[in-house]
Amino acid sequence: MNMELTPRKKAVLRALIEDYIQYAEPVGSKTLVERRGLEFSSATLRHEMVELEEMGFLAQPHISSGRVPSPRGYRLFVDELMEYHGLSEIERETIDASMRLKAKELDRLIVKAGEFLSLLTRYTVYALTPRIDQVRLLRFDLFTAGDDTFVIVVVTDVHTVKNKVVRPPFPPAEGALRRLTAVLNDRLTGLVLRDVTQERMRSVTRQAGEAGVYVPYVAGFLAELLEEFDEREAFLAGQSHMLGHPEYHDILKARRLLEYLSDGRELTRLALADSDGSVRFVIGPENEAEELRDTSVVTASYRIGGNLRGFIGVVGPTRMDYARLSSRLAYFASRLGRLLSGGEEEAP
Amino acid sequence: MNMELTPRKKAVLRALIEDYIQYAEPVGSKTLVERRGLEFSSATLRHEMVELEEMGFLAQPHISSGRVPSPRGYRLFVDELMEYHGLSEIERETIDASMRLKAKELDRLIVKAGEFLSLLTRYTVYALTPRIDQVRLLRFDLFTAGDDTFVIVVVTDVHTVKNKVVRPPFPPAEGALRRLTAVLNDRLTGLVLRDVTQERMRSVTRQAGEAGVYVPYVAGFLAELLEEFDEREAFLAGQSHMLGHPEYHDILKARRLLEYLSDGRELTRLALADSDGSVRFVIGPENEAEELRDTSVVTASYRIGGNLRGFIGVVGPTRMDYARLSSRLAYFASRLGRLLSGGEEEAP
DNA sequence: TTTAGCACTCATAGTATCCGAGTGCTAACG
DNA sequence: CGTTAGCACTCGGATACTATGAGTGCTAAA
User: Fold this and answer.
1) Which residues of B139-151 are buried (b: 16+ CB within 10 A; e: fewer)?
2) Looking at chain B, which terminus has fewer C-beta neighbours within 10 angstroms, N or C?
């Protein structure tokens, strides 16, 4: 028996997968002729299908039904067979328009982007913010605000300025804060956040004189920032789309999946894309998590500035419209990266 | 026929509703005796049930089945019949512990709170931030950051400090920004954001000399802030819980509802609680939105500081555990308000 | 190598039947 | 007169059986 993937076998497999993606029903030899227009008799196709099944690319739900792609089949499809859809001008414009988001904080922006992507693709979407392990401190500013509080503002070199309002037991004097600000800017700016040691903070305290009593607040804030920057935040959008696919008409399955996805920690562990721009497919059992074994995840990454990478992706049944999806996702991610890197007047 | 709500009728109705809430199955006269321990024969209870049905408190899915509470029945139940569960010490502590949230931004805090409430109640939760129509400007600060950008920081009297990074076509000089900052603080602090007129900004420009070229950036930022503060933000959490209730085993129903709820604008229009602390129930057809006609919404409000009110609530089938829910929700909302009003060192 | 023909498989839909929880009504009881 | 036992009746849901037809694998001829 011919166990090579002849061009004809590829054509059959491709036609079958495309049909199954569209109609979500096992595809028979006759359907292949009638609906996909393959120029062979159904008997010939049956031969091919038997061999494709033996090669592991197809499966049969039961003995007398049509064929269904196996995960390996999908894998071959996305790697070699599928034809990438180009985007129409209109689609490009829709995506571009969606990027005019007003939010200023990174995470709000990502959430909005995810919601839009979910609207666009009609799949459930997850998004991960970048893990920011190298934040550089650019500037400090401390000033009083209200009766007995003061504000610490820290400017970093990534997309955000962070601040905190502090209420110390002893009311801060404007002059003392000004002095402390000067010392902080003198001693700490230009440093990477991770490199701000206790030793350095002690030297700030020494230099700050009486304003030194406020140093612990600054140190505490920096510690919080370090922690906050260091972990990715995860978001999910468009959960209701999951219920639109027939494979999740089993309510228990749908529920388990959504429950799994709503755990941010699990999301963070989810498939991450390989390299910028390109799209990664993780198909069914290729997923590590038990809960995703019959689910596919398609991910792209977006870049902020130089080396910060966040991820945005789509979750759905293995029978996803990979071809259509991947081009949209890739374009979307590249646009998102551009937006966040400050194509607008936004961002340092 | 006795059309008055005798104490016995109330007892029957209450027992029936409690049973239905627990088991989600039409309740028969025999069940009332055996499971709820009513001290009458099933025949007597059948008499009562006929009358309760005629009064509109019960309904019968079909002629030979048990009874189910009608929306009017639930209404009576929450208004008069149900017995509020107290919270155990452990539950109180669990809620209190959940309030030690690290997030600094208001909306992130609300999201986290909503996620926790959903975990606690096992229902889908929605949350609305307060509508902040009276923001007072406390302080401005402008400074350069990086090569050709500068940062505008605005401190307000509500829970947040806002900032924006701006990249003007002409690099800003440190001195000019210092001067502009001084003018802004002189002319605008203490004002309510809404009262910052174009006229006022023009006078700032005049006073700022050469730094006046940067005033439009500040004005633009203030306009954005006004818009941002003025609208509530809406969040949804725990969507997967919806699928846990048998009334949403109809996937189409579940999907429609989740789709409706994932539209933030619709959420904003959702039932709002009446007064602080107390909990409001909107039962099935009492909802204005068509999509919520067989869904109940239970809402509480939380206060930030003096007069800002946000809402947090729970969405589920009309067969909700109102008694258990309301006490938990009320306590949760009051705790949330306390947290946000600055029980911690947080917030101006 | 391809295709027509054919017997075979089996999921699905449709139909018939049964079961029993629950009802409403009536008559007897305290 | 309110309460209860008894009973015929209803009807949704479970179970069993059958028919249908899409799809198969195999064989033999083109």
Assistant:
1) bbbbbbbbeebbb
2) N
| Collapsed DSSP state (helix, strand, coil) of residue A77 | helix
Burial class (CB in 10 A: 0-12, 13-18, 19+), A219: middle
* Tokens at B242, concatenated: 């919806």
CB B35 within 8 A of CB B55: no
Q: Using an 8 Å Cβ cutoff, are B123 and B238 in contact? A: yes
Residue B163 and residue B154 in contact, taking contact as beta carbons nearer than 8 Å:
yes
Task: Give CA torsion, residues A197, A200, A201, A205, to 10 deg.
Answer: 170
CA distances from A320 to A20, A94, A327, B151 (A): 10, 22, 13, 44
8 Å CB contact of A138 and B145: yes
Q: What DSSP character marks residue B213?
A: G
Minimum Cα–Cα distance from B224: chain A residue = A102
Find the Å distance, CA of residue B72 to C1' of nucleotide C25.
28
CA distance A284 to B281: 43
B190-221 confidence digits (pLDDT tens): 899 999 999 999 999 999 888 889 999 999 99
Phi then psi dihedrals of residue B310, to 5 deg: -110, 170
Sheet holding B137-145, edge to edge: B137-145, B149-156, B161-166
The CATH topology of domain B137-230 is Enolase-like; domain 1 (3.30.390)
Number of residues assigned to chain A: 348
Q: Name which CATH class applies to B7-81.
A: mainly alpha
Q: Look up residue A128 and give its two tokens.
A: 């991960």
Q: From the C1' of D2, which residue's alpha carbon is nearest?
A: B44
How high is the mean pLDDT of chain B? 89
* Helix residue ranges per DSSP H, A99-142: 106-121
pLDDT band at A342 (very low <50, low <70, confident <90, very high): low
More confident residue, A174 or A221: A221
Residue A274 contacts by C-beta under 8 Å, 6 or more apart in sequence?
A280, A301
Residues of chain A with CATH 3.30.390: 137-230
Cβ-defined contact of A165 to B239 (cutoff 8 Å): no
Helix axis angle, A215-230 to A174-188, nearest 10°: 50
The identity of residue B12, as a single letter, is V
Distance separating alpha carbons of residues B298 and B282, to the nearest angstrom? 6
Segments of chain B assigned to CATH 1.10.10.10: 7-81
Q: A282-299: per-residue pLDDT in tens? A: 999 999 999 999 999 999
Instruction: Report the pLDDT value the prediction gives residue A346, as an integer from 0 to 100.
Output: 37
A62 touches strand C (CB under 7 A): yes
Q: How far apart are CA B315 and CA B260, in angstroms?
A: 12
CB A205 within 8 A of CB A215: yes
* φ and ψ at residue A244, rounded to 5 degrees: -80, -20
Mean pLDDT of B313-335: 95
Residue A217 pLDDT grade (very low, low, confident, very high; cuts 50, 70, 90): very high
Distance from CA of A310 to the nearest CA of B (A): 19
Give dist(CA A221, CA A229) in Å, integer.
12
Residue span(s) of chain B under CATH 3.30.450.40 come to: 89-130+232-343
Distance CA B66, CA B25 (A): 8
Q: Which option is the CATH number for A89-130+232-343: 3.30.470.20, 1.10.246.90, 3.30.450.40, 3.40.50.2020? A: 3.30.450.40
Q: Do A342 and B167 touch (CB under 8 A)?
A: yes
In angstroms, the CA A95 to CA A327 distance is 12
Number of A–B residue contacts, CB under 8 Å: 108
Residue among A139, A239, A348 whose CB faces B258 most closely: A239
Residues 153-192 of A with CB under 8 A from B: 153, 155, 157, 161-167
Structure-token pair, residue B301: 């409000």
